[in-house]
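User: Study the chain.
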Amino acid sequence: MNKVYLVAKNLNYSRHSIIAGKRINMRRKSLRTGVFLLILGLIILQLGELMIAHQTVLMGQVLNLLGNDALLLEFLGVLTQFLGIALIVAGLTSLMDGIVTVKLESEIHNSEYRILAGIDEKISKAIAQKMILPQSHLTAKTCKFCAAQLTAEDVFCPSCGKSQL
């Protein structure tokens, strides 16, 4: 029984390592996505600030394309800033998700180890009790009341006369 348990335990670890390999790849993908969104958000945020700060230079180019509305350029600058901030938040969230995933995986691995160690301990105790149990039948019986030695056939104690059933 102990060999069967050890084989099952080893199979469980190999299955866990395959799953952990997939988790590592997904975590790397999450980190790459987070870094990309963070950098893209910073670039777009800087573009929005540039549009607001240098309105006089960009005014002529934008007015030729869009018409004679000066407030439109300011609106586009603020809109690109908000878009950049949204991408920065999405990138940071994705990066934090990767970090939290690493922490949770280590906690899950530790809890799995504790569970397996507890199961292993319970199985070894059960095996030890089964090996000890036949030896306890070989010991002599004693009276429940006065602790006098009894034979296997005695129903009443020879010392105190009380029933042992």
Observations:
- The longest helix spans residues 70-138.
- Strands lie at 141-142, 149-150.
